[in-house]
Amino acid sequence: MDGARWQDELARLGAAFGVRLSGDALVAMWRHWQLVREATGRFNLTAVREDAEALVRHYVDSLVLLGIAGPWAAEGLLVDLGSGAGFPGIPLLVALGPGWRGLLLESQGKKAAFLREAVTVLGLDGRVIVEPVRAEEAGRRDSWREQADLVVARAVAPLNVLAEYGLPLLRVGGRLWAYKGPRVAEEWEAGRRAATVLGGRLVGAREVELPGGAGRRVLVEVVKEEPTPAGYPRRPGLPARRPLGA
Ligand SMILES: C[S@@+](CC[C@H](N)C(=O)[O-])C[C@H]1O[C@@H](n2cnc3c(N)ncnc32)[C@H](O)[C@@H]1O
């Protein structure tokens, strides 16, 4: 698929989900996909190879949140936990516009290096920071703790573990959106208990059918209602080994 057609198709599908994308945003997403596709030949960043499949499974999927939630403020801080090749963080930041700053957390060094390169090529240097650290470490640093307006994560961990990764980073009033699948019901109770311990509350879930048979996305909303107690997140690895609320 050529770049112009890919961008037209992304604009059309975005609009169908209530997401309006500027010309600059569409160009940036196409460039990002070129970088991902090229890097995938060198190491394993994504299983997706085809332009059309990436358009839906990576870009539309990342962006549907903007259509189902909001209204979105003109500025804020977004954290993407376990960003991998940059999903959903990079499409969201590009679409939200220059008022939004970003923190992409990715514990694997190679992927973090890719993200840094992508941020530079896309001209996002001034507003997006890549930290090659685990979410548990970032959540204990004063510079990032209780700062974010929005935390997102796709394909990283069960809800209760995500709650411990994400809630410490959110300011009171901020929201964690977990990109989940139809089986999230199995994670619900443990996630709810964990969120409560961490100053959060599971608000609910929104379901979206992705186009082209790409499956159903379930977006789970967690709101931060009180500061997270000082002992959380626990040391790296512990949230996944001894999950809260299990
Ligand atoms: C399956 S990949 C998903 C990547 C991307 N979110 C996506 O949906 O395409 C999960 C990523 O999360 C990262 N990860 C897992 N646990 C993490 C943690 N505690 N802190 C930071 N990154 C983490 C892994 O290194 C991996 O790149």
If you average the pLDDT, what whole number results?
97
The dominant shape is globular
String of helices and strands: HHHEHEHEHEHEHEEH
- Unreliable stretches, pLDDT < 50, 5 or more residues? none
Helices, by number, come to 9
Identify every distinct bound molecule in the structure, by name, code or SMILES. S-adenosylmethionine
How much of the residues is beta strand, in percent?
15-25%
Structural class: alpha/beta
For the CA atoms, what is the radius of gyration? 17 Å
Helix content: 40-55%
Q: Whole-Å distance between the termini?
A: 46 Å
Task: Output the keywords.
single chain, 246 residues, alpha/beta, seven-stranded mixed beta sheet, 9 helices, 41% helix, globular, binds S-adenosylmethionine, rRNA (guanine-N7-)-methyltransferase activity, transferase
